[in-house]
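Dear Dr. L.,

I hope this message finds you well. Following up on our conversation about the binding site, I have prepared a predicted three-dimensional model of the protein together with iron/sulfur cluster. For your records, I am including the exact sequence and ligand specification that went into the calculation, followed by the structure tokens. Please feel free to forward this to your student if that is useful.
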Amino acid sequence: MYNPRELAEKVEKEVCSNNSRKYYRFRSTNFYGGCATADCLGCNLRCVYCWAQKKVWNPKRIGRFYSPAEVCQKLLNFKQPLIRISGGEPTLCKNHLLLVIESLPKNALFILETNGILLDENYVKLMSNYDNLYVRVSLKGVDERSFEKITGAEGKYFANQLKALELLNKYKIEHRAAILVDLFNKEDIQKLNLPNLEYESLIKYPFVKNALKDRNII
Ligand code: SF4
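The resulting structure of the complex is given below.
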């Protein structure tokens, strides 16, 4: 098992450089009804079903560094109403992320898809300065045990995900939590007692199915 905060520090050395960050792709997608997407490299978790793991967990071999201004320009070129950073975990390289949001025109809504582990109070407070921000926290379990099984990380860090939601609430940042319904039973999900919880479905690539079987998850 690993500590996802320590892993974050290690990965940041590979994917963050001054205010720049490493990305491997920019694309226009149909998510949320039309969303320009930058796929970043690096993550502080190792989820068993991670569809992007080959790239995201091996940031040394691919991609290149982009400044916040370059990222914004590339995303705005797609002329989509919504903008997001996907692929890996956007809250690695914290300054870079804030500078990207700050550089966007006020009418461009930025959707932050995050596992929430690195969202501490200071950072959430800074994020609350931006009106064009919507945060979606992807829960990796319904309790410590399931979080450990899914991510391979120490179970106590599940609390960080819930804490992130509390902080977003406290600082009145628009947000919601999302969970993969295929992996947990309904009763356990309901016990979380989270309003506006979004149900996602797992894309069951063959490698995902095998990995879930190996960890006795399905
Ligand atoms: S948090 Fe997302 S990017 Fe990171 S390992 Fe899990 S699924 Fe992959």
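In brief: The chain has a mean pLDDT of 95.

With kind regards,
A. P.
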